[in-house]
Specification:
β1 and β2 (42-43) form a beta hairpin. Strands 1-2 form a two-stranded antiparallel ribbon. α9 packs across α12 (245-256), α9 packs across α13 and α12 (245-256) crosses α13. It folds into two domains: 2-87, no CATH class; 99-277. It has helices at residues 2-9, 11-31, 44-60, 69-87, 99-122, 132-138, 142-158, 162-186, 192-218, 222-230, 236-239, 245-256, 260-277; strands at 38-39, 42-43. It is mainly alpha-helical.
Length: 279
């Protein structure tokens, strides 16, 4: 009876625990190939897991109740821990997609990528004179890498074969490394105003590249993902201090037309998934 009464006394805690159970069980079933039927381009399992993850994100961002500060602070801390646990699970919003669906989604990201790279090209004028050369050198390969990645994404959409996928894997892995290296270079800029402009511009590109990398990885074999990760000399974990996850979430939410709370969860999931894969 005490367990039942606790459900009513701590509804958010109980709901959060239930949602984590749903995501955990859904993840385990997906890994075993159990789908419970199709839902659009995915499966019922991935749909339910995605909705549960979204609700977890919203709960984790729920403001504390000022009328009961001690209990609210404790509850918020627990929600943060549970939300973190949920982020360590596989990506439910990517799983279950076909190669053609993923290819289309990659192509859908290309305008955002081209726009972000164009912004990078114009940002030098806003920097202190001593910082502009550092930024120019750090981002010199963005235009070429963007053109190659966009071309390979469109080629894969037109012909989603293993050979074309291999070229797409190489293109996105190379660009991801360039973004990581440029973020480390930005740390050398000591002018705070310049550094903020630089980080904002690079992060806008990086958000799209990481989204594309996650999509490509979702249709790649474990051996292919391991091969891409092994060629990554600048790891994502090393540049996490320079990532702007709030802006990345806003960018993701705008692209998919979804709540920012869900996008925050997805950004953290994508980053952690890539780090766990060795990137």
């Amino acid at each position: 009876m005490k367990s039942i009464s606790n459900i009513w006394k701590h509804p958010k805690t109980s709901v959060t625990g239930l949602l984590i159970a749903v995501v955990t069980i859904g993840s385990a079933l997906s890994q075993q190939g159990i789908t419970l039927g199709s839902a659009g381009n995915g499966s019922v399992i991935t749909l339910v897991s995605g909705l549960a993850t979204a609700l977890l994100g919203l709960l984790a961002r729920d403001p504390a109740n000022s009328a009961n500060n001690a209990d609210s602070a404790n509850s918020t801390a627990k929600l943060g821990v549970w939300a973190l646990i949920s982020l360590l699970l596989p990506l439910p919003f990517i799983g279950g997609c076909s190669a053609k669906t993923v290819a289309q989604e990659i192509v859908n990201w290309t305008p955002a990528l081209q726009s972000a790279v164009s912004t990078v090209d114009s940002i030098a004028a806003l920097l202190a004179p001593a910082d502009a050369p550092i930024f120019a050198a750090a981002t010199a390969g963005f235009d070429a890498a963007s053109n190659v990645l966009v071309a390979q994404a469109k080629a894969y959409l037109a012909n989603p074969t293993a050979s074309v996928l291999a070229q797409l894997q190489t293109a996105v892995a190379v660009f991801e490394q360039q973004v990581n290296a440029s973020l480390l270079s930005a740390a050398r800029i000591t002018n705070l105003n310049s550094q903020q402009h630089v980080l904002n511009a690079i992060n806008a590109v990086g958000t799209v590249v990481i989204a594309m990398l996650a999509l490509v990885s979702s249709v790649s074999s474990k051996a292919a993902v391991a091969r891409m990760a092994a060629q990554s000399s600048v790891k994502l974990a090393a540049v996490r201090p320079y990532l702007d996850e709030d802006n990345a979430a806003a960018q993701l939410a705008d692209h998919y037309g979804e709540p920012v709370g869900l996008a925050r969860v997805q950004v953290a999931q994508a980053e952690l998934s890539m780090i766990r894969a060795g990137f």
